[in-house]
Every structure is written in structure tokens, then in C-alpha cells.
């Protein structure tokens, strides 16, 4: 195994003994058949005036690699946008998703049963829109943390009788962190107490400004319950999608993400996949997350068996060895053997990774990460007991600059540190700073599990000092 002197002799058209002599003069003793280390090979190459280039074996099990592939412009076709609905609890997310789903049921499907598979599609004037059926920014960010950036457009629902609430602000910041365009659906305008202008006014504070006020954000006033203006909302989605020029290549082996997955008693592992590029077909050998198989059946959101699924189409598949997780990536392979090999390799690595869990951004390793150039800015989430402290902390932190690196505030709000904060911190590599507030029990558990760094303080000066010290690499280790 490995490369020995005989191999090298052949490459350079030299006598093996000559190479052995050269190595001896360099202080390396080697015999003809002994495998050489990379360093020694480099040394010999340099002796012969050759730049050694490393032959990189493509790691087929590295699914992320398939997503980095450049797709030629001419192969790309317009694809449907993928939309996530977010907003504060009770502002009407579920009602909106249900109404939109019903508008999609055409006459010939009227009697047909729609199936909840985690995503569905709506036809609008010959165009298609894909909606993710799990509302909320936490599902959105959890997916993102797992590598799946599937959402193209975020709809943030704000009830006109209630206005901007804590989870509205969370949703805005989660969408902004993902760099996804936001459409505001001002809901419940049928209510006598509805005040859409107040919603607009309140949102300006978070940088969301309506077009008619000179801003960039689209607002649509709707009533999800009364089915008012939903067609206008759909049109706006198509408009934003058009500006984004969402395209994909339908003519290649499919890649994409897992929207939902479960183990079914009768069917075994089922997973809803959303195709990103290519066309998924029944019979395709596939690697999904850390599992693999062959696509046995495909069912769409209208509960129909289908044979192919193109870009931005959600389908529920069977035929996997095991259930993957929401947010996992999938890649179709050319044959079953390589799919199996890659799947098994991934399962093994996942186990290993769990053992030596991955490095997260913490105050203690901040300097190291900055030095290694892994971080361009220090992401933080600020939670405090009163608005004044939130603002004071944000202002002070934004002033910090250590060798060109600044603090970037991903989210700031009044209140206890909650699970949403931890999820967002995990997805955006942020440190959570609590000022006179504590994490909830669930947030603490999630932070422990995901190794998110939460720091609590009672004095603003201490926050500033500790972040600055950590950025300079002078933080005393914590015991
Ligand atoms: P979610 O928690 O954001 O998913 O909110 P839901 O969709 O469950 O809605 C919460 C409540 O608001 C329910 O009682 C809905 O019937 C009601 N609701 C939703 N949309 C509207 C609307 O446009 N007008 C009125 N009057 N009520 C609505």
C-alpha cells in the first residue's frame, strides 16, 4: 500500500537507486519497496524541480459538496418559490396555511383528500408556489442549522388587532439572519379593532418599512379567516419570486432537503423531500442524511402517486433504510452500491462526530476562531429585562472593534432567554448575552445539548469588557 520508491522512479524516469541515494543525502533512509510518507514524496519532487500536486479523492459521502456544484446558466429553468409563514402565536399562521391550501384544490380534485406531508403547492394563474406547512421561525432556523436553506420568501403574519409582538420580532430577525426577503401579511383586518397603520408604524422600528412609505417591504392586508385578499398575497409572492429569478436545472440527478420524516409501522421509514435541483424519480438510489435506500414510492401533497418530481416539489417517499431528520440533505446516486457505501460511511461518521462533538462559537474559543479566520464578526443575541438595557447594550457592543472585527447583533429583545434564541444562536454561530435575565429551563437544556454559549450579566460594563477581552484572546479560562 502507498507509494514507494519504485513508483516514483517510474514517474520521474529515473533509476530507483538514484532516488535512494538522493534521499540518503537528504538524511532519509529508505528501501525500494517501503511506502513513503507525503513529506518524503514532496521532498523528492522538489529535488526534481516538480511542484507536487495533491490528487484529491472526491469524497462521495460529503453531501454538501453536491450543493456547491455550479450549474450552467443555460440549463436553468424558472422554478416555484418556497415560502415559510412565520409570526406571533395566534396571529393566524395556521388559518392562513389552511386557507391557501384550499384555494389550491381544483375542481377535479375537490373530492380528493389532501395529505399533510409537511409542504404543499398552490397553483396561481399557471404559476406554482410551494408552502412549507410547519409555520414558525423555529422550524425554519432548525432546518437552517442542519444545512437546509430551503426558504426563498418569508411571510410574517401580524394580527392587525394585536400589533407587533415578541415572536414577530423574533421572526423578523430569523428571516434577516437567513437573508430571506420578507412579505408582511397584516391579518385579521375583518376585526373592528384592526389597526393596520399601527402595525406599519411599529414595524418601522425593526427596519421593515412599507413601499408606500418609501421602504422596500411589501405589505398585504388580509383576513385569513374570511379569505380576504389572499389572491393579492399570492400575487405578491410571485412578484418577489420573479425579482429573485429563482431557477433550477430539472435535467440532472436530484438533490434537495428533508422537510419531514417518520417511521411508519406499515410503510417503514417515510420522508418528505423537497427537490432543489434535478428531477427525483421512482427507483432512484438515494442518500438521505445518514441513511440511504432506493425511492420505492412517491406521493404528492394531493395524495397522488407520482413517478417524477422536479425542482421545489415536495414529495413523500418510501424505501429508505431508516428515518432521516428534518433539514437533512439528500442526493441521488448513479447506482445503489455507491449510495449504500456513502450512506454507511455517513452513518459511521455521524456516530463518531457525536462522540467528539463539533466546535461551537463560545467566548472561550472566540479569539482562536478569529485568529483562524473562521469568523468575520462576532455574532451576539441580546436579551435583557428592560428595553433601555437592550438598547444601551446594543449601542455599546456595536462600538467594540478589535483588529477590524466588530460585533454583529443578530437579535435583541426584552425577556428571558428562550428556545428560539438558542436555535437562532446555533444557526448563526452566535453567543447569547442575558442582562438581568435567565434562560428558561428548556432554553438551558437546548443550549447544553447544542453547546450554545449563554452568558448572564448584571453590569453592562462587565459585558463590554468580557467580550472585548475575549476578542483580544485575553479571557481567563472559566472553570
Ligand atoms: P397561529 O397560532 O398563528 O397559527 O394562529 P391560528 O391560525 O391558530 O389563529 C388563531 C386564532 O385567530 C384562531 O381562533 C383563528 O380563527 C383566528 N383568526 C385567524 N385569522 C383570522 C382573521 O383573519 N380574522 C379573524 N377575525 N380571526 C382570525
UniProtKB/TrEMBL annotation:
It is found in: Cytoplasm. GO terms for molecular function: GTP binding; GTPase activity; translation initiation factor activity. Residues 78-247 form the Tr-type G domain. Residues 81-229 are annotated as: G-domain. The keyword GTP-binding applies. It comes from the Bacteria. One of its GO terms (cellular component) is cytosol. Transmembrane segments: none annotated. The keyword GTP-binding applies. GTP binds at residues 87-94, 133-137, 187-190. Keywords: Cytoplasm, GTP-binding, Initiation factor, Nucleotide-binding, Protein biosynthesis. One of the essential components for the initiation of protein synthesis. Protects formylmethionyl-tRNA from spontaneous hydrolysis and promotes its binding to the 30S ribosomal subunits. Also involved in the hydrolysis of GTP during the formation of the 70S ribosomal complex. Belongs to the TRAFAC class translation factor GTPase superfamily. Classic translation factor GTPase family. IF-2 subfamily. This is Translation initiation factor IF-2. The lineage of its organism: Bacteria, Bacillati, Bacillota, Bacilli, Lactobacillales. The gene is infB. The chain holds residues 206 to 684 of 781 of the full protein.
Amino acid at each position: 500500500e502507498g507509494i514507494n520508491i519504485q513508483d516514483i522512479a517510474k514517474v520521474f524516469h529515473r533509476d530507483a537507486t538514484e532516488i535512494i541515494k538522493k534521499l540518503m543525502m537528504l538524511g532519509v533512509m529508505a528501501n525500494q519497496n517501503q511506502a513513503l510518507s507525503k513529506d518524503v514524496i514532496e521532498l523528492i519532487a522538489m529535488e526534481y524541480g516538480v511542484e507536487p500536486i495533491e490528487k484529491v479523492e472526491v469524497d462521495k459521502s460529503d453531501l454538501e459538496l453536491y450543493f456547491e456544484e455550479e450549474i450552467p446558466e443555460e440549463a436553468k429553468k424558472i422554478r416555484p418559490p418556497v415560502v415559510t409563514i412565520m409570526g406571533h402565536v395566534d396571529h393566524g399562521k395556521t388559518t392562513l396555511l389552511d386557507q391557501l391550501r384550499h384555494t389550491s384544490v381544483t375542481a377535479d380534485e375537490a373530492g380528493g383528500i389532501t395529505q399533510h406531508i409537511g409542504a404543499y403547492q398552490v397553483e396561481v394563474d399557471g404559476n406554482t408556489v410551494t408552502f412549507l406547512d410547519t409555520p414558525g421561525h423555529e422550524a425554519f432556523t432548525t432546518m437552517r442549522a442542519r444545512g437546509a436553506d430551503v426558504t426563498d420568501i418569508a411571510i410574517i403574519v401580524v394580527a392587525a388587532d394585536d400589533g407587533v409582538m415578541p415572536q414577530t420580532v423574533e421572526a423578523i430577525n430569523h428571516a434577516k439572519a437567513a437573508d430571506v426577503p420578507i412579505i408582511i401579511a397584516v391579518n385579521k383586518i375583518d376585526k373592528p379593532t384592526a389597526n393596520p397603520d399601527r402595525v406599519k408604524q411599529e414595524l418601522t422600528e425593526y427596519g421593515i418599512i412599507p413601499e408606500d412609505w418609501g421602504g422596500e417591504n411589501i405589505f398585504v392586508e388580509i383576513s385569513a379567516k374570511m379569505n380576504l385578499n389572499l389572491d393579492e398575497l399570492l400575487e405578491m409572492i410571485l412578484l418577489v419570486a420573479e425579482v429573485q429569478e429563482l431557477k433550477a436545472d430539472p435535467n440532472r440527478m436530484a438533490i434537495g432537503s428533508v422537510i419531514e420524516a417518520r417511521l411508519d409501522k406499515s410503510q417503514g421509514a417515510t420522508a418528505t423531500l423537497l427537490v432543489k435541483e434535478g428531477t427525483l424519480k421512482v427507483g432512484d438510489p438515494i442518500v438521505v442524511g445518514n441513511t440511504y435506500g432506493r425511492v420505492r414510492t412517491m406521493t404528492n401533497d394531493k395524495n397522488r402517486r407520482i413517478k417524477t418530481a422536479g425542482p421545489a416539489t415536495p414529495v413523500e417517499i418510501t424505501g429508505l433504510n431508516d428515518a432521516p431528520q428534518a433539514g437533512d440533505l439528500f442526493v441521488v446516486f448513479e447506482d445503489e452500491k455507491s449510495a449504500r457505501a456513502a450512506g454507511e460511511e455517513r452513518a459511521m461518521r455521524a456516530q463518531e462526530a457525536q462522540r467528539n462533538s463539533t466546535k461551537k462559537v463560545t467566548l472561550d474559543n472566540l479569539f482562536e476562531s478569529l485568529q483562524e479566520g473562521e469568523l468575520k464578526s462576532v455574532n451576539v443575541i441580546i436579551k435583557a429585562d428592560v428595553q433601555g438595557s437592550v438598547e444601551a447594550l446594543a449601542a455599546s457592543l456595536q462600538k467594540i472593534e478589535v483588529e477590524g472585527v466588530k460585533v454583529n447583533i443578530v437579535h435583541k429583545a426584552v425577556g428571558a432567554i428562550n428556545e428560539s434564541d438558542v436555535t437562532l444562536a446555533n444557526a448563526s454561530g452566535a453567543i447569547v448575552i442575558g442582562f438581568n435575565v435567565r434562560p428558561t429551563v428548556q432554553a438551558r437544556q437546548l443550549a447544553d445539548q447544542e453547546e450554545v454559549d449563554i452568558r448572564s450579566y448584571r453590569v453592562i460594563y462587565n459585558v463590554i469588557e468580557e467580550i472585548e477581552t475575549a476578542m483580544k484572546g485575553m479571557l481567563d479560562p472559566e472553570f
